[in-house]
């Protein structure tokens, strides 16, 4: 291969990567993935980390009954260290706030992963170029969005920052695994279309009655009305029913289940252990093929995928 051919291949590859980023807009980072602002309970326990916008939300709110603020900004939870920082005008790296009301729960208290500081850098390359970092869902979004709420709400463990080029490279391996899952779960990559035939023929009959009633023999009219009765389960086929059905697009009678929806439905049927194994499989796959060197501290392949565990 000469230099010109190599240059053309590299140019096509860069164009493909840019196209991938445009077509995967849900992965483009809108702001920093990790906030690292610290939120403490009234008794001084670290509850959770968050982005600055959420910390400011607490600072800007007041109790509706007493008018007292819901939180206060602090330099440090230790009053002695706070005094020293205030004396020498030392600013913390990230905002810290303390709630002034008793929360119902103490957030992520005791969870080492959730309460550890995380860097906004590519987990594969270590790059801190925020303009080129994207969000990577280790359990792909096409599956995650169909999981029960207790799994979706625990998803922050499996969303990591990754450079767009590294993201693109890994997704090619992920696509191969999706093909394997497609065969295993009988879930076509392009989804599976089913048709509600009663609904479809009711629409078709309503369109015929609305536009060609005057030219139809009585037995044909009755045949069309029977198709509408079979779908609506109503003896009297009114003009309103005919008009409503005839204005309904045929696509309404078709339902397309996506690849991800089919897979997750079968996982749910198998139970929580199957979902946990599925999530761990994707974590192991990411580690094997993306080869990340900068994963957050305490990140764990075996961590529970559900909030309720």
Tell me what you see in this structure.
There is one protein chain. With 309 residues, this protein is α+β, with helices and mostly antiparallel strands. It has three domains: 22-118, no CATH class; 119-187 and 261-309, no CATH class; 194-256, no CATH class. The chain contains twelve helices and eight strands. The strands form three sheets. A four-stranded mixed β-sheet has the order 2-1-4-3, covered by helices on one side. It is elongated and about 95 Å long. The two termini are 55 Å apart. The relative contact order is 0.12.
Evaluate the radius of gyration: 28 Å
| Number of separate strands | 8
Low-confidence stretches: none
Q: Largest sheet, described in full?
A: 4 strands, mixed
Basic shape: elongated
Distance between the termini: 55 Å
Q: Quick check: average pLDDT?
A: 90
Number of domains: 3
The DSSP helix count reads: 12
Annotate the secondary structure layout.
Elements: H1 3-23, E1 37-40, E2 46-50, H2 52-59, E3 71-74, H3 79-87, E4 96-99, H4 112-115, E5 133-137, H5 141-144, H6 149-152, E6 159-163, H7 164-184, E7 192-195, H8 197-212, H9 218-232, H10 239-246, E8 254-257, H11 259-270, H12 272-290
Parallel strand pairs: 1-4
Antiparallel strand pairs: 1-2, 3-4, 5-6, 7-8
Question: What characteristics describe this protein?
Answer:
309 residues; alpha+beta; 3 domains; 4-stranded mixed beta sheet; two-stranded antiparallel sheet; 12 helices; 46% helix
């Amino acid at each position: 291969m000469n230099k010109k051919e190599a240059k053309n291949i590299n140019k096509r590859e860069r164009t493909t990567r840019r196209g991938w980023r445009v077509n995967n807009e849900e992965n483009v980072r809108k702001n920093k993935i990790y906030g690292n602002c610290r939120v403490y309970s009234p008794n001084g326990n670290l509850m959770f980390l968050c982005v600055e916008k959420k910390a400011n939300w607490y600072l800007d709110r007041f109790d509706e009954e007493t008018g007292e603020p819901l939180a206060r900004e602090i330099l440090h939870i230790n009053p002695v260290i706070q005094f020293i920082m205030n004396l020498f005008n030392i600013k913390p790296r990230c905002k810290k706030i303390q709630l002034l009301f008793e929360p119902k729960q103490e957030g992520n208290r005791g969870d080492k992963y959730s309460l550890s500081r995380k860097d906004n850098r590519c987990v594969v390359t270590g790059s801190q170029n925020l303009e080129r970092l994207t969000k990577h869902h280790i359990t792909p979004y096409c599956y995650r969005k169909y999981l029960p709420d207790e799994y979706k709400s625990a998803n922050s463990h499996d969303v990591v920052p990754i450079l767009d080029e590294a993201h693109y490279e890994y997704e090619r391996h992920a696509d191969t695994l999706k093909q394997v899952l497609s065969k295993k779960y009988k879930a076509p990559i392009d989804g599976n279309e089913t048709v509600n035939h009663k609904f479809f023929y009711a629409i078709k009959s309503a369109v015929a009655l609305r536009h060609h009633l005057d030219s139809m023999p009585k037995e044909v009219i009755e045949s069309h009305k029977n198709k509408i009765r079979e779908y609506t389960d109503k003896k009297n086929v009114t003009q309103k029913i005919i008009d409503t059905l005839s204005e309904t697009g045929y696509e309404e009678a078709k339902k397309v289940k996506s690849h991800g929806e089919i897979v997750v439905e079968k996982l749910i049927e198998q139970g929580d252990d199957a979902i946990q194994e599925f999530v761990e499989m994707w974590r192991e796959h990411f580690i094997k093929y993306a080869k990340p060197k900068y994963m957050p501290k305490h990140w764990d392949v075996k961590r529970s995928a559900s909030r309720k565990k």
